Every structure is written in structure tokens, then in C-alpha cells.
Amino acid sequence: MKIREDFDIDNILKNYKYIEESDLSGDSFHYAYKFKNNHLSLQGIIFDFEKLNGVYFIPIKKWNRFMKCWAIAIYNHFNCYPTKKTLPFRQIMYERLKHPYLDGENKKNKISIQKKN
């Protein structure tokens, strides 16, 4: 994302604050960011659930890995119990899990390159 030159990042940073234990009351979660060299990046998720008796931090890399495994588990579940209603959903999930970073345009380019060879 390219930001205009006259953009004042201090206006955004005023709304960010250091987290305190009082902010984590009850069942809640917050995103943790790092600001370094005028670059704001997501670091993870901080959450507090009363039943777990503590405050926990999940790094964003582990969260992304969990979400990928969760998507695979859902796909496997739908494949174990297939119905006509879930067929389009299963096809979409299969394509996205097979090639998670390819969008429709890249797929077309890949097919045209294969035809040339």
C-alpha cells in the first residue's frame, strides 16, 4: 500500500496504546502491532479467556498455520460426508488449498504458458 506524502501517521498512532491488564477484562482479544521505522506490522493476537486463567499471545505465523490446518480439516470433513449442496464449496476449497496464492488471472497466465510449451 502506497501512502500519500502528506499523510500524518501520528494521527493513527494516537489511537494505539500499550496494553494493560485492565484492558483484558473478561473474554477478550486484541491485535498486537509493532511500529518500527514508520512501518506498522501485525505481530500476533493477545487474548484472555476466563476459563483458561491467563493472558496468552499467539504469533501471527502460528495463527496462519492454524487457520490453514483448520481449512484442511473442514475440507476433509466435507469430503467424508459429500452431498450435492457441498460440491461447489468443496471444489472452491480444493483449488484454494491446492494453489493458495494463485488467483484467477495467474491461473490463466499459467495455462497459456503451458500451451506455448
TL;DR?
With 117 residues, this protein is of the alpha+beta class. It has helices at residues 10-13, 60-80, 87-98, 104-116; strands spanning 28-36, 39-49, 54-59.
Number of helices: 4
Structural class: alpha+beta
Arithmetic mean pLDDT: 76
Provide the helix percentage.
Answer: 40-55%
Gyration radius, to the nearest Å?
Answer: 21 Å
| Strand ordering within the main sheet | 1-2-3
Main beta sheet strand tally, sense and closure: 3 strands, antiparallel
How large is the share of residues in beta strands?
Answer: 15-25%
In N-to-C order, the SSE pattern is HEEEHHH
What shape does the CA trace take?
Answer: flat
Distance between the termini: 35 Å
Q: Which stretches are low in confidence, meaning pLDDT under 50 for 5 or more residues running?
A: none
Overall number of strands: 3
Per-chain topology:
Blueprint: H1 10-13, E1 28-36, E2 39-49, E3 54-59, H2 60-80, H3 87-98, H4 104-116
Helix pairs in contact: 2-3
Give me some keywords for this one.
4 helices; alpha+beta
Account of the 3D structure:
The protein is of the alpha+beta class. The chain has four helices and three strands; from the N terminus they run αβββααα. A three-stranded antiparallel β-sheet has the order 1-2-3. Strand 1 and strand 2 form a beta hairpin. Helix 2 runs antiparallel to helix 3. The longest helix has 21 residues. The two termini are 35 Å apart. The model has no long low-confidence stretch (mean pLDDT 76).
